[in-house]
C-alpha cells in the first residue's frame, strides 16, 4: 500500500534524513487559518462530498447521539448515587448547600456515568466515525475519492493504534477531572479550616473552577488532535499526545475557539432535548415524535462538524509548524512519520 519514509544509515557517514515524497508533502499543505476560516474550510469540504459525510453521520454518529441524549443505557440509580456522593463531598469541604451546587453535581455525575455506560459505543461507533472523517478529509486534500474498501483495509492495519491512543485520551481526561476534584477539595478545606464561612469559601472555589476550565479546554484540544494524529501518522498513545502538544504551538487560540463553539452547540442541543423531549412542560407531548429525532440529528451534525474541524485544524497546525521550522531536520523527520497509506492507497 505505502512505502516507508525514514532515515538511511551509512557506516561511514552520519545519519541522513530522507525528505518525504512530494505527494506526502502535498497532502494537508493548507495555509494557517483562524477558527472562522477553519469553519469555512469545513463547510467547503462538506459541500465537496456531502454523501460520504452524511453516511458517516447516519450510520455511526446518529446511534451514539441517540443513546447519549435519551439516556436509554444509563442507570438513573447510579447517577443519583454518584450525585449524592459529590454533594456530600462538596458540603463537607465547606461549600454551602445550594440548588446550583446540586445541579452541578448532578450534571457532573450524569456525564461520568453516561461516559462509563456508553463506553462500548464510544470505543466502536464514535471512534470509527472520527477515523472515517479524518480519512475523508485527508482524501479531500490529496485529491482522492473516498473508497470504502480502501478505508476498511486501512482501518484493519491502524485499529489497534487508534484504540490504544483513545485509551490514553480517556486516561488523560479522567486524570484531569480527578486532579480538579482533588484540588477543589483541598482549596475548600484549606479556607474552611482557616475559619471562613461557606459564603466566602465559594469565591476561591469559583476561581479554582475557572482555572480548571482553561486546563480542561487545553486538555480536550490536545486529546482531539492526538486522535487525528493517530489516524494520519504512525504514532500512538503518549507519542501522539506529545506530537499534538508540539503541533498546537501557536494555534492555541484557534483550538480554544473551536472547542468553545462545539461545546456551546452541544450544550444548547442537550438543553433543548432536556426541556422539549424529556420534560413534558407544554401541550400533550405529541411534538416529541418529531422534535426528538430532529434534536438528535442536530446534535449529530454538531459532532460531525467538530470532528471535521479537528481534522482541518490538524492540517493547518502542521502547515504552520512547517513554516516556523522550515528547513529544520527535526521538522522533516516528523513529516516523514506521516502515514502514506491514507493518501496513496490503490
From TrEMBL:
The record's keywords, sorted A to Z, are: Membrane, Transmembrane, Transmembrane helix
Q: Which residues cross the membrane?
A: 52-70, 108-127, 164-194, 200-233, 254-273, 293-315
Q: Does the keyword Secreted apply?
A: no
Identify the domain of life.
Answer: Eukaryota
UniProt protein name: Uncharacterized protein LOC105058003
Species whose genome carries this gene: Elaeis guineensis var. tenera
Q: Which gene encodes it?
A: LOC105058003
Amino acid at each position: 500500500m505505502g512505502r516507508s519514509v525514514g532515515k538511511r544509515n551509512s557506516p561511514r557517514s552520519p545519519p541522513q534524513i530522507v525528505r518525504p515524497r512530494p505527494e506526502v508533502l502535498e497532502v494537508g499543505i493548507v495555509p494557517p487559518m483562524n477558527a472562522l476560516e477553519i469553519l469555512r474550510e469545513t463547510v467547503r469540504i462538506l459541500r465537496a462530498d456531502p454523501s460520504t459525510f452524511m453516511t458517516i453521520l447516519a450510520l455511526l454518529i446518529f446511534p451514539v447521539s441517540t443513546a447519549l441524549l435519551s439516556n436509554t443505557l444509563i442507570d438513573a440509580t447510579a447517577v443519583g448515587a454518584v450525585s449524592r456522593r459529590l454533594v456530600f463531598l462538596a458540603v463537607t469541604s465547606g461549600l454551602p448547600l445550594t440548588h446550583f451546587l446540586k445541579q452541578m453535581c448532578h450534571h457532573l455525575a450524569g456525564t461520568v456515568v453516561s461516559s462509563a455506560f456508553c463506553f462500548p459505543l464510544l470505543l466502536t461507533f464514535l471512534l470509527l466515525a472520527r477515523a472515517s472523517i479524518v480519512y475523508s478529509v485527508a482524501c479531500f486534500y490529496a485529491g482522492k475519492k473516498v473508497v470504502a474498501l480502501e478505508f476498511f483495509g486501512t482501518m484493519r492495519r491502524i485499529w489497534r493504534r487508534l484504540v490504544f491512543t483513545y485509551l490514553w485520551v480517556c486516561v488523560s481526561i479522567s486524570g484531569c477531572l480527578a486532579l480538579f476534584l482533588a484540588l477543589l477539595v483541598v482549596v475548600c478545606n484549606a479556607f474552611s479550616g482557616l475559619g471562613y464561612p461557606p459564603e466566602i469559601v465559594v469565591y476561591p472555589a469559583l476561581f479554582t473552577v475557572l482555572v480548571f476550565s482553561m486546563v480542561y479546554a487545553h486538555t480536550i484540544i490536545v486529546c482531539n488532535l492526538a486522535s487525528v494524529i493517530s489516524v494520519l501518522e504512525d504514532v500512538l498513545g503518549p507519542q501522539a499526545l506529545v506530537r499534538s502538544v508540539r503541533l498546537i504551538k501557536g494555534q492555541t487560540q484557534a483550538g480554544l475557539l473551536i472547542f468553545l463553539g462545539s461545546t456551546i452547540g452541544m450544550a444548547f442541543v442537550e438543553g433543548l432535548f432536556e426541556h422539549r423531549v424529556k420534560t413534558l412542560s407544554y401541550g400533550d407531548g405529541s411534538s416529541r415524535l418529531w422534535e426528538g429525532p430532529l434534536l438528535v440529528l442536530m446534535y449529530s451534525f454538531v459532532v460531525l462538524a467538530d470532528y471535521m474541524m479537528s481534522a482541518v485544524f490538524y492540517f493547518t497546525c502542521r502547515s504552520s509548524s512547517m513554516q516556523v521550522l522550515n528547513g529544520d531536520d527535526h521538522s522533516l523527520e516528523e513529516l516523514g512519520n506521516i502515514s502514506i497509506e491514507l493518501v496513496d492507497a490503490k
